[in-house]
Design goal:
Blueprint (H helix, E strand, L loop, with lengths): L15 H12 L3 E7 L4 E5 L17 E2 L3 H4 L69 E3 L3 E2 L2 E2 L21 E5 L10 E3 L22 E2 L3 E3 L6 E3 L15 E6 L21 E7 L4 H14 L8 E7 L3 E4 L9 E4 L7 H7 L14 E2 H13 L18 H16 L3 H10 L8 E7 L22 H6 L5 H17 L2 E8 L6 H9 L5 E4 L5 H14 L4 H5 L13 E11 L4 E6 L3 E2 L1 H6 L17 E8 L4 E6 L1 E2 L5 H4 L12 E11 L5 E12 L8 H6 L5 H18 L4 H19 L1 E3 L2 E7 L6 H10 L10 H11 L4 H8 L2 E5 L7 E2 L12 E5 L3 E6 L1 H8 L9 H20 L5 E6 L6 H4 L13 H9 L13 H13 L17
Parallel strand pairs: 5-28, 6-26, 8-12, 13-14, 13-18, 18-19, 19-20, 34-35
Antiparallel strand pairs: 1-2, 3-30, 4-7, 7-25, 9-10, 10-11, 12-28, 14-15, 14-17, 15-16, 21-24, 21-27, 22-25, 23-24, 27-28, 29-30, 31-32, 31-33, 33-34
């Protein structure tokens, strides 16, 4: 018989000592009931608990002991509060069980909040007060690892610390920012007009005027990037939005080409994007029918003027003509080999008299009936495949043909090109998306990833590491070649892969990631995961521009934010001696911009896509977030940051560094825009050397943003060195040891003396969870799943990325029926509570053994136990709230603590209590006969990780600086 959940020192079989230890762990970091706003929702605002620790060594360095993992294991600012409509608990999940003790009514207790009293900040002479890291994305779409610019020196004798050849800077964690280019803006931030034509852009370096630049009314303004004096723009107004806001968006008017009679020729220049549907015809019948219904439904979400195309593939690739209503034509290609572009043009009979537009690519409003009919009549091509073989799929050929159609669309014959140039200088807007729907791997022709014999397994991580992949290199190179061709026509490849097996998205990743495309992966096309994700895919980039439709089709120049962009080109302008190391995110180097303008601000230390300050990407949506990394080391040790222009008013008295992000793009309705974000950062004093405690005292470090940046750096390293998993983990360990050694307070040789300031205390636990996440896994995860999760980590905002690294865990029980953030630890597993885990790609509900027994006894259906039904309803509502907004739609499951699905939660938890444990927790669980809180794993717990970290930090080498003692030593 199950026990009652009592408000005592005992929790259903746990003795008083174990319960007290759990309470002490949970109280180390208590959350206040206040709610704050984050990037995309409301979150519990954390308050650091506990009194200040004793001063270390000289009495300086009040902070948090590193040994207290319970406090450091909670996500700061990431526990979300949700208010959603009530929904009744589904009683159908309950099963008949033996009679058990009923749940007791809760007793309400008042919550207690704790606050940390930090040391007083001592300002350096001649410097303004730096602002603390906001730990949130600001209105400009920016979030920094350091809120103060760390001017440092470059040590030319310092060697790289890993195979990745990334030298750790003096700050250990580099200065970086997460920037969301299409973050929505208010109406007051929009400006109609070309800034270059109005004298608002520097003709020397291309930077734009802004509110931070020095200007003399009516005379000149000084560019903060190159210090050039430029004449004040004509019709200058002090009320210009650029002089009042950090971020402004210029809407550049464009004239449509006109005919000889002066009328606008609408057919001469289409301004809407092109969509090509590439459909796998080898799907099972029920999945193919569900896919066709979803595609037909999405036609209502496309602009009527947009061009559409249809390609189906199976053993052959079929290209359908949509411009003829009397007789539908289909061009069938065998797809056994790679076709040259000219060869494809000849096969499709594309000539000057028979162009692509109007045949294979036609306006939706003109061919909707034909397209709908073709999709409805599409038949399954997998009826004759033997059971021991895979279907023949020519996926690579189908994608190659789609790319060729877009190339032919923008290739003008010589005679027409001269006529078009004389009529108008405005070319056709290049914008397109290829939507690939596939239910299995390519087995024929270019892009093949596996043979047709099912006895031949798909490649795994170990095969890639050992080089035992006969198809991988050719398929990867084929899609990498398509990547540049897609970029030239400003189109992206979006892949919807629904299969229980791998489909080959690992080989496609370059063509998808670097063009701004999207991966949506699941199990079946007739599952809710695909249907919901497919709808939110269109909601995310909004091709019909609903803001424009809400204005009744207002004239060009209307001030509103768009959710997506095409043909994006972006760059960075910086002050002197501020260098850009690179960008992490979906982009390529803008070769055309590099030929016309120098990239003097490019750092010799390249991270991600580096060596330039100009990048491009085919498509972008409102949530895509880039990581810009900066090299803050001065080129010489003379002067540093304070002396460089300290008396020059044009450099803002030498106490700030200037950075400007410029994004040029085309909206889905063909409008050209330029978004300019200009910011300045306070410069930390750097004479004679930078003081680490300066950043600690001013709380200038954003540990959540830093963890996301490092996770992206890890992914970038593993993409370049796929077989160097262990070396990358050692590089991460070295970084953490040096970081804690630099910013922590300790006495050499005494691990227990190590203390970290609260603004740093969560950073080790973030990296601990990163080491245990799927991004470092080789076993029990497929290469396709790894590519899928890396894809979203490299494009989503900080708040989403941190959930991928360290899931959020919430507890519900009779005493606290609302969501209560708890440590991601096995100590949070109790028989009398319900856990809700949000791991971004997975959302799971797990009932404790006692709760599950009550559910089986159907106490939730008894009016006497209404509070128990309300408890179950609260958990369901919070889970539904997460599912209602998450993109892509996550996997969702409900289970009990001993169910098979419980592994999804337990594998992400810190294994405090394992089958090897001989402590109080394991003994109590064994005595009670309940093993729900025992995690069967050989991995090291965070306690062992922290002990190894402290030992490595306080150990000093022969030279006294800890060199050579940077290994944590846990797996």
């Amino acid at each position: 018989m199950q026990g009652y959940p009592q408000q005592q020192q005992q929790y259903c079989g746990y003795d008083a000592a174990a319960s007290q230890a759990q309470q002490q762990q949970q109280q180390q970091y208590a959350y206040s009931p206040a709610v704050g706003n984050g990037d995309y929702g409301s979150y519990y605002a954390p308050a650091n608990a506990g009194a200040s620790q004793a001063a270390v060594a000289s009495g300086v360095g009040v902070g948090v002991g590193v040994g207290g993992y319970g406090g450091q294991y909670m996500q700061q600012g990431q526990q979300q509060a949700y208010q959603y409509e009530q929904q009744q608990y589904a009683s159908g999940m309950s099963k008949t069980a033996d009679v058990v003790a009923s749940p007791l009514a809760p007793q309400v207790e008042s919550p207690t909040a704790y606050a940390y009293a930090g040391p007083a900040a001592a300002l350096a002479p001649g410097h303004d007060t730096p602002s603390a890291a906001p730990n949130a994305t600001d209105d400009n779409g920016l979030r920094w690892t350091w809120s103060t610019y760390p001017n440092t020196y470059r040590d030319t004798k310092h060697d790289p610390v890993s195979v990745a050849s990334i030298t750790l800077p003096e700050m250990i964690v580099p200065l970086a920012c997460m920037y969301t280019p299409l973050r929505p803006l208010e109406t007051s931030h929009f400006v109609l007009g070309d800034p270059a034509a109005r004298g608002q852009q520097c003709p020397n370096c291309g930077a734009f005027w802004n509110k931070h630049c020095h200007r003399e009314e009516g005379k000149f303004w000084v560019c903060l990037s190159c210090l050039r004096r430029n004449p004040m723009p004509p019709n200058y107004s002090p009320e210009h939005p650029a002089l009042h806001h950090d971020t402004v968006e210029y809407i550049i008017p464009s004239a449509a080409p006109a005919t000889a009679g002066g009328a606008v020729d609408a057919s001469a220049r289409h301004t809407y994007p092109t969509f090509v549907f590439i459909i796998d015809a080898c799907l099972p019948v029920e999945e193919l029918e569900a896919l066709k219904q979803n595609i037909l439904r999405c036609l209502n979400w496309l602009p009527p003027q947009s061009l559409v195309g249809l390609i189906s593939f199976g053993a052959r690739t079929s290209v359908w003509e949509l411009g003829t209503s009397t007789l539908t034509r289909c061009y069938s290609l065998r797809g056994e080999r790679q076709y040259e572009p000219a060869e494809l043009s000849a096969m499709l009979q594309v000539t000057d008299a028979m162009p692509v537009q109007g045949r294979f690519l036609a306006p939706l409003e003109d061919c909707e009936f034909v397209l709908t009919t073709l999709i409805e009549e599409l038949q399954c091509d997998d009826s004759v495949t033997p059971g021991n073989k895979r279907p023949l799929r020519t996926t690579g050929t189908a994608v190659s043909v789609a790319v060729r159609l877009l190339e032919l669309l923008y290739e003008k014959p010589a005679a027409k090109a001269a006529k078009a140039a004389a009529a108008s200088s405005a070319p056709a807007v290049k914008a397109g998306r290829l939507l690939l729907f596939t239910g299995g791997p390519c087995t024929r022709g270019p892009g093949t990833v596996v043979g047709i014999e099912k006895e031949k397994m798909m490649r795994f991580h170990r095969d890639i590491i050992d080089g035992d992949t006969p198809y991988y290199a050719d398929a990867f190179n084929m899609y990498k070649g398509l990547q540049q061709r897609l970029s030239n026509v400003q189109a992206s490849l979006d892949v919807f892969a629904e299969s229980f097996d791998q489909t080959g998205i690992l080989e496609m990743r370059e063509a998808v990631n670097q063009t701004g495309g999207t991966f949506i992966c699941g199990d079946m096309f007739n599952h809710k995961m695909f249907t919901t994700s497919f709808q939110r895919y269109f909601d995310r980039f909004d091709p019909r521009v609903r803001a424009l439709e809400a204005q009744g089709g207002a004239a060009a120049g209307a001030a509103f934010s768009v959710r997506s962009a095409f043909g994006v080109k972006f760059g960075v302008h910086t002050s002197v001696e501020t260098l850009v190391s690179g960008v992490l995110g979906p982009c390529l180097v803008d070769e055309q911009a590099n030929k016309t303008s120098p990239h003097r601000a490019a750092s010799p230390i390249q991270i991600g896509v580096g060596g330039t300050t100009n990048w491009c990407v085919s498509t972008l949506d409102e949530a895509v977030t880039y990581t810009f990394l900066f090299d803050t080391a001065t080129m010489s040790k003379k002067g540093g940051g304070d002396a460089a222009g300290a008396k020059d008013p044009r450099s803002i008295e030498g106490r700030h560094r200037f950075l400007q992000f410029v994004v040029r793009f085309t909206t889905p309705h063909g409008e050209s825009r330029v978004r300019v974000t200009s910011v300045v950062l306070h410069v930390a004093p750097s004479l004679p050397s930078i003081e680490p405690q300066y950043f600690v005292q001013h709380e200038a470090f954003d540990q959540t943003c830093a963890a996301t940046v490092l996770a992206r750096m890890v992914v970038s390293i593993l993409e370049k060195h796929p077989s160097k998993w262990d070396d990358t983990k050692r590089w991460l360990d070295t970084l953490l040891v040096r970081f804690v050694r630099r910013y922590g307070n300790f006495r050499p040789g005494i691990p227990e003396s190590l203390r970290l300031h609260p603004c740093l205390s969560l950073f080790p636990s973030f990296l601990f969870n990163l080491r245990r996440s799927e991004y470092f896994m080789v076993l029990n995860i497929s290469p396709d799943e790894t590519a899928f999760k890396r894809h979203w980590l490299m494009r989503d905002p900080v708040d989403n990325c941190v959930l991928m690294i360290q899931p959020a865990l919430y507890s519900y029980d009779i005493e606290a029926p609302q969501a209560t953030p708890v440590p991601l630890d096995s100590c949070s597993l109790r028989p009398d509570n319900i856990l809700l885990m949000d791991a971004y790609f997975n959302i799971h509900i797990m009932w404790g053994t006692t709760i599950f027994a009550w559910i089986q006894a159907k106490y939730q259906d008894d009016p006497e136990y209404l509070y128990f039904a309300q408890l179950l309803e609260n958990v369901e509502n919070d889970a539904i709230g997460l599912l209602s907004t998450r993109y892509p739609y996550p996997r969702f499951s409900r289970t009990d603590a001993n169910g098979s699905e419980a592994r999804h939660i337990k594998t992400r938890m810190n294994p405090t209590v394992t089958h090897h444990s001989g402590g109080i927790g394991a003994a109590a669980a064994t005595a009670a006969g309940d093993q729900s809180d025992v995690i069967y794993t050989d991995e090291a717990s965070i306690m062992k990780f922290m002990e190894s970290l402290k030992q490595a930090v306080v150990s000093l080498g022969k030279d006294g600086n800890g060199a050579g003692n940077n290994s944590i030593g846990v797996r």
